[in-house]
Amino acid sequence: MLTGKAKVVTIITAYEAQDLVAGAFLNLGVKRYSSLHVDGLGAHGRKHNGLSGNKNLEYVILASPALAEQVLAWVDLQLLPRYPSVAYSTDAVAVTAEPLS
After folding, report:
1. Does pTM surpass 0.85?
2. Closest CA to 84 of 45, 35, 53
3. Class of CATH domain 2-96
C-alpha cells in the first residue's frame, strides 16, 4: 500500500472525442482511468442526444502532479480546439497498490 500526494483530473467532453482521448492517454502514459456518460448544462448549452443518443463522456484520472499537468496541457492544446470540453484537477491523497504515473 502506497500513500501519497496525487491529482484527480476530470475531463468532460463530447462522446465523439473518445478515440482522440484514448489515443492521447496512451501517448501521455495514463495507465488507469474511469469514464462515464454524463449530461448537463455548460458553456455550450444543454447537451442534447445526437442521432445515436450519445451523452458527453467524463474521464477521471488519478495521477502524479507531473502527469496531471501534461494531461491538462494536452486538453488545452489538442482537445479544446476540436470539441466542447472542460477539464480541471484537484489535490488528493491517494492510497494505491502501485506508484502513480
Report:
1. yes
2. 45
3. alpha beta
